[in-house]
Amino acid sequence: MSSAHLSAGRLNVSIIQEQARKQLLCLLEKCDGTKVIIWDQSLEGPIGLVAKYNLLEEHDVVKMYPLCGGHLSIPPNIANVIFITRPQLDLMDLIAENVHGEEERRPRKEFHLFFVPRKSLLCQKKLQNRGVFGSFTLIEEFKCDLFPFDSDLLSMELSGAFKEFHLENDPTCLYQVAQAIHGLQRIYGKIPKITGRGPAASKVWELLEKLNREEEDNKATSTQSTIIEHLLLLDRSVDLLSPLVTQLTYEGLIDEIFGIKYNAVLLPAKRFHDSEDSPTAMSLKEKEQIILNSSEELFAEIKDKNFNGVGPVLSKKARDISSQLDGKYGDKSVQEIKQFVARLPHMLATKQSLAKHATIAEMIKEVTDSCSFLESLQIEQELLNCIDTDKPNAYIEDLIAQQQPILKVLRLLCIQSLTNSGLKLKLLDYYKREIIQTYGYQHLPTMLNLERAGLLKQQQSNRQYSILRKALRLTVEDESEITPKDISYVHSIYAPLSIRLAEHLVQPNGWLGLSDVMGLLPGPTVNSVPVNVPSSGRRNSITSEDSNSEPPKLVMVFFIGGCTFAEISALRFLSQQEDSNVEFVVCTTKVINGNTFLTSLMEDLENL
């Protein structure tokens, strides 16, 4: 039942998928009879990664509904109503409305509540206050902290983690991160070395140490060999710039332009069908869901490439498939014909995949060739190179005057602030005044949030970005986009600071060689002493002089506050280098892009 591509990496993440699936089905089996599931809408997609709808149908799930207020329209023959939700107080009000509405109807149904990933006393108290707590037959926990996206990518799907900790001073999400890492250690063995940077990373490390001590007090020390040899905790506040920069990888651009949700993107169906297809069918399905993961051979090959390097790959594939199919039988022997027929399904699948990605690439090119995109990208790259960052930017002023989408304005404005290490007070006030007067006073809380988060700030005496840019080579000119030698290819000229830190960490001297610049980054550094744990015959050090004699060291990078597809691609690039003796796997609270990152900090989404 597990997806084959999830077990392809050094870290077999299909184990996580299988454990979550078994746990969910076990919970469903506790509810005898027909069932409907009412989903917290933030969970329907993630849980779909571990259990498809057809599997739920096999366990008497008749229908699924999104969680919203008011009365439900549940068929009378349903015996069980199951709410699956995150422990959030506002959702308890919606659940209470649903239960009150259904209790008035006959025949009476059994109500069940599954919290993901853990119960909340506050939520249960809220249900008591609303008079529905006693209506539930079962209140259980579905302990799924991490959802598998790919063989080297796990996500908690906590969209508000950055805002909750850095703006609302709510550390709940950090406890969930610590619990998630603790759960990984139960499966893959204790992680011997932990390094981190930033206030959130420090808090997570403290919580994880506490959880480890509690476990050691309760039972004997585990002798399980370790698979993950080093954990790097990165607080998003350490690198606020990278999420805002336009991603220029194939997968990154799909996310930037169309939005990827849970390994899928919705695109116009008419672009993927010939004109001879039934117009009736086309009108019934205006959007087509395209699945994007490494189970598809072609996508696995091109997803991490700079978009300018995708075209040559697609062209070569097209020529190869064409020559193979054109050859067909000819003067082949019976044995050769048999071999050709055996390869035919794979060739036809590749041809179909090629047509699909050629269409997606064409749709992306329509955007990336537009004047609007190219002008915005040029300004962005000028700011990254510290060109005219200390004065009003004419392009940003024009965007505001034309009332262009506010997210586009805010991304460039925050990039200018971060690359200039803040804006002079007069300039900052000018921008804020222009935005409030143009887009409305409802965006004042958003501007305040951006300031509190450090995305917009008053200029400081030391030019942090300028120093970091030179010391860490954050901008690289003349880097090949088709055959890259440096991680900067993911943004064409900009190397994500977060990935530069990971790159330096796995060098022989680690971060010791960065002592002059680490002080410019926010928060403390976490550097735990390696513990003695079985290591499957491998040394515990991150690097090795004789890398050919042993497999690469497995390093997990955990982004607390979200990371982008471009950052993930950059880590994969480092893993794939010939001289690399390190393989990276990524965990994150959420996969984000510049728009979703800024949106999570906004107070009034209805007026966007």
Can you characterise this structure?
It is a single chain. With 608 residues, the chain is α/β, with parallel strands linked by helices. It has helices at 14-29, 41-48, 53-57, 89-103, 121-129, 161-166, 172-188, 199-218, 250-257, 279-284, 297-302, 310-327, 334-368, 371-384, 394-401, 406-419, 425-439, 444-453, 464-471, 497-505, 515-518, 565-576, 594-599; strands at residues 35-39, 61-66, 80-85, 110-115, 136-141, 147-150, 153-155, 194-197, 230-235, 264-268, 287-291, 525-527, 553-560, 582-588. The strands form 3 sheets. A 7-stranded mixed beta sheet has the order 6-7-14-13-9-8-12, with helices on both faces. A 5-stranded parallel beta sheet has the order 2-1-3-4-5. Strands 10-11 form a two-stranded antiparallel ribbon.
Q: Short summary of the structure?
A:
The protein is an alpha/beta fold and 608 residues long. It has helices at residues 14-29, 41-48, 53-57, 89-103, 121-129, 161-166, 172-188, 199-218, 250-257, 279-284, 297-302, 310-327, 334-368, 371-384, 394-401, 406-419, 425-439, 444-453, 464-471, 497-505, 515-518, 565-576, 594-599, and strands spanning 35-39, 61-66, 80-85, 110-115, 136-141, 147-150, 153-155, 194-197, 230-235, 264-268, 287-291, 525-527, 553-560, 582-588.
